[in-house]
Amino acid sequence: MISPHNIPVPAPRILAMASQEVPKTCKVILADTIAKKMLAEVKDTLASIQGPAAGKPTLVAFLANDDPSAGQYADWSKKTCEEK
């Protein structure tokens, strides 16, 4: 095989994967599982600090630029606060 610059390039090789069973030593942990525990802890901590008569805390955020990822993160944060 020759590259566009006339330099010999080795032909690609296809490697066959072994058909061995993968050991089941891994544990799948979903982010939702961790998030639920953390949100419950935050809620309990706020309740113990503020007492029963306190209002809901207010989250204020400012976007520093027009990065779409930052806007998506802000939307997710807002959604999480509204759900809880």
Structural features, described:
- The model has no long low-confidence stretch (mean pLDDT 79).
- The termini are far apart.
- The protein is elongated, with a radius of gyration of 26 Å.
- The chain is built from 2 helices and no strands.
- The protein is 43% helix and 0% strand.
- The longest helix is centred in the middle third of the chain and has 20 residues, at 31-50.
- It has helices spanning 31-50, 68-83.
- With 84 residues, it is mostly helical.
Give structural attributes.
43% helix; single chain; 2 helices; 84 residues; mainly alpha
Shape: elongated
Number of helices: 2
Structural class: mainly alpha
What fraction, in percent, of the residue positions are helical?
40-55%
Mean pLDDT comes to 79
Reported for the largest beta sheet, the result is: none
Radius of gyration: 26 Å
Low-confidence residue ranges: none
C-alpha termini separation: 60 Å
Strand residue content: under 5%
Could you give the order of the helices and strands?
HH
How does the SSE layout of this entry go?
Blueprint: H1 31-50, H2 68-83
